[in-house]
Design a protein that fits this description.
9 helices, 6 strands, single chain, elongated, six-stranded mixed beta sheet, alpha/beta
């Protein structure tokens, strides 16, 4: 048929299969991107497509994303918080940069970041389990202090009595009488990074950069109630829906289930 019509075979294949296939691929990429809350890049989209039985190169995915202006939050301008005070307590770095292959609740880490609520800075605190990178506790508040950290501890599930080590940087918000009493009551050992050494808390730093990018930056909440509602929704999505490269592209909940 191509010889009789004097057209290229490649043109025929493009017209007969290419457009339909590209349309299905386009729709799948757009849906995955939107379901990821504009966070997934080509690597994770490729994994999700493969799970759907669709094979596509990252180059092809990148072209479609560019064509439809699918810009990940990670390609946008980043912001950096400058900490001016630190905790000078003589506490050892028990974790010693051994972040991987930890048992469930053997080591938990925490950090804080700021969010814009009606033009004013509010703050959120997350507590993560190093085993599966799952958010096991979180809180929101109008002040960046130990009360915010304590509030996050009250939401930890499962119970605090199963936690062995609490590791953080030397922010003063992690040093307070109520925090000390809580750790002592549940026999949780304290671990602190060395002063001015972010590598001692590398997993937490990397994870919280993700949380800041996906949840805190580029957003302005109209009220504290909206912040709390959206924070609850994000934590549920992060633990149950979002795939993580460090977890072999599983969700934290799925990773925990296969590792038990």
């Amino acid at each position: 048929m191509c010889k009789i019509l004097k057209i290229s075979r490649t043109v025929y294949y493009y017209e007969s299969t290419g457009r339909e296939g590209n349309s299905d691929l386009k729709n799948a990429i757009i849906k995955i991107f939107e379901d990821s809350r504009n966070n997934y890049g080509t690597r994770k989209i490729k994994v999700m497509l493969k799970n759907m039985g669709i094979i596509a190169s990252r180059r092809k995915i990148s072209k479609i994303m560019a064509k439809y202006n699918l810009i990940s939050n990670y390609t946008k301008k980043q912001y950096k918080i400058h900490k001016v005070t630190c905790n000078n307590e003589k506490v050892e770095n028990v974790v010693n940069r051994e972040f991987n292959n930890r048992e469930i609740l053997e080591v938990i880490v925490s950090d804080l970041t700021y969010v814009n609520v009606a033009g004013l800075w509010n703050y959120i605190c997350f507590i993560l389990d190093l085993h599966d990178r799952r958010i096991i506790g979180y809180s929101a508040g109008r002040k960046k202090d130990a009360e915010l950290v304590y509030k996050a501890f009250t939401t930890v599930n499962p119970g605090l009595n199963k936690i062995q080590i609490f590791h953080t940087d030397r922010g003063n918000e992690f040093k307070n009488k109520i925090i000390d009493e809580l750790l002592k009551a549940f026999n949780i050992k304290r671990s602190l990074s060395k002063k001015g050494c972010p590598y001692d808390n590398a997993v937490a730093e990397a994870t919280f950069k993700i949380l800041k990018t996906e949840f805190a930056f580029y957003r302005r909440f109209t009220s504290f109630e909206e912040l709390e509602r959206e924070l609850f929704d994000y934590v549920n999505w992060y633990n149950n829906v979002k795939i993580h490269g460090s977890l072999n592209y599983l969700t934290p909940v799925a990773y925990k289930q296969v590792s038990i």
